[in-house]
Amino acid sequence: MAKVTFIGLGVMGYPMAGHLKVKGGHDVTVYNRTTEKAEKWVAQFGGRFALTPADAAKDADYVFTCVGNDDDLRSVTIGADGCLSAMKPGAVLIDNTTASAEVARELETAAEARGCHFIDAPVSGGQAGAENGVLTVMCGGKQEIFERSRPVIDAYARMVGLMGPAGSGQLAKMVNQICIAGLVQGLAEGIHFGKKAGLDIEALIAVISKGAAGSWQMENRHKTMNEGKFDFGFAVDWMRKDLAICLSEARRNGAKLPVTALVDQFYGDVQAMGGKRWDTSSLLARLEK
Amino acid sequence: MAKVTFIGLGVMGYPMAGHLKVKGGHDVTVYNRTTEKAEKWVAQFGGRFALTPADAAKDADYVFTCVGNDDDLRSVTIGADGCLSAMKPGAVLIDNTTASAEVARELETAAEARGCHFIDAPVSGGQAGAENGVLTVMCGGKQEIFERSRPVIDAYARMVGLMGPAGSGQLAKMVNQICIAGLVQGLAEGIHFGKKAGLDIEALIAVISKGAAGSWQMENRHKTMNEGKFDFGFAVDWMRKDLAICLSEARRNGAKLPVTALVDQFYGDVQAMGGKRWDTSSLLARLEK
User: Fold this and answer.
1) Which chain A residues are within 8 Å of B12, Cβ to Cβ?
2) How far, CA to CA in Å, does A149 sit from each of A36, A108, A156, A161, B152?
3) Residues A179-202: pLDDT tens digits?
């Protein structure tokens, strides 16, 4: 049992912090920008909440962050009243935000300058994965710190891997999102074509999903896609945020991402159609428009 | 045990005909444009070979065709010495070629005009699937004829489904190839980016392949992609043939296939790089050029 702080109680962070308390059995203090959500969390799970990231983090062995983007992340860590200013030497900052590899390296440097440690640990598995505590966690950082943090992370994860030095967790998450972009567009074109061709989509998927066209997305999204149901899942706004990070990093490392860049534009069309909160599978709605 | 004819002993047809003989226990007669291959097949499996499709088909209950394209298919069925001219009333023509939905409907009409029947039955699973007799077979045609033919088809298949009237098997196969086009390009961009980012691809895939980015292609192709090994599998030339059929049908039914069309162009680049016989996963080689 460790002293754990969780900063950022969004759709992902709220249940993840809950698993650290209930499944992990840790002594958890939370912080959230809007205090109401922190109060609600404490009412549901026990523990304590604090009014600043620094105050929340001052006694912790492990400080988790799960916020919206690089700027929010800098604000709650190295900003005024950020957690790093208060963390005790030897404590580990574990960041679950999907952010740039750059900010991860920056935070490792800032943490180590204070005698603390850092792991970037973006997750995949969405809201359902967070609620069920079965997320995939892609970590970057030093082996020893990863080994020490892993049993704590396990409270909300099914699969945890160290991908390399700081930033590598973020780079792995980028690969994940790049693969999804092309895959979901291919699936959307396939289902769109199938409907235009008059095929029974359920019967079709039952036959092709076990073969070379098969994927998690086909298995888990074809039914809602066929029904035109998109008001759930991983929001297009968030996917575009992630793809912007991928495309920016690719500009740096020289990778060519022609279809990822195109699909990012397609998601722009979906946003313009009113689909900012729709699931990523809504690329189909754009084709059907 | 039925009298079966198999026309077209290519990389797919050769082992499929073998399964009809050995696993199905049928009385098999084969025909191939180059007779040497038919002689070799008979030396390996027994049975007989004939010198024309008509001669091969004259006593058969089921006549299978598995040739290169629409024109080859017309030639061995309704062309001079084509099998339909010799088939007895009630016999079923089962076409395993990946062809247009149009030619499937045309062949059903031609078969029925002679008192025969027709099933379009393109397969997926590649050379390995054919050799191991575990293909996925997408059928189009009449329910009763499908039910009668299914136990015979089972000799080389793991999954057999009726997708609708004649041509529907071909349309289902098109959906399969459309899904694969986007999926493989996304996977290629992901692995390309991961290599540029300095990630250990094996460690990365071990973590992300169970989640939302996971697919048959990721599972079965990441290792060879990472090694730059493309001299195996489903050839780019054949993929382009299939994508041409998809894009042509989409022109007819109005489906929008922007990424499929783009990936078809990318495969054109791979052909120009000398990759006509490379596996479809060679989209990665194009990005790395």
Assistant:
1) none
2) 29, 15, 13, 11, 57
3) 999 999 999 999 999 999 999 999
Q: Is residue B21 annotated as a catalytic residue, yes or no? A: no
- B1 DSSP 8-state letter: -
- Give the nearest partner residue to B216 out of A182, A204, A212, using CB atoms: A212
Asked if the C-beta of A78 comes within 8 angstroms of chain B's C-beta atoms, the answer is no
Boundary-marking domain end, from B107, B142, B164: B164
**Nearest by CB to B208, which of A176, A196, A260?**
A176
CB spacing of B185 vs A186 below 8 angstroms: yes
Q: Do A193 and B174 touch (CB under 8 A)?
A: yes
Q: How many domains does chain A have?
A: 2
The two most distant CA atoms of chain A are separated, in Å, by 64
pLDDT per position as a tens digit, B21-71: 999 999 999 999 999 999 999 999 999 999 999 999 999 999 999 999 999
Same-domain check for residues A27 and A159: yes
CB neighbour list of residue A148: distance below 8 Å, 6 or more residues apart: A92
**Could you report the per-residue pLDDT of B148-183, keeping only the tens digit for each?**
999 999 999 999 999 999 999 999 999 999 999 999
A14 and A150 inside one domain? yes
Same domain, yes or no, for A161 and A218? no
- Among B125, B149, B164, the domain-final residue is B164
**pLDDT attached to residue A65:** 99
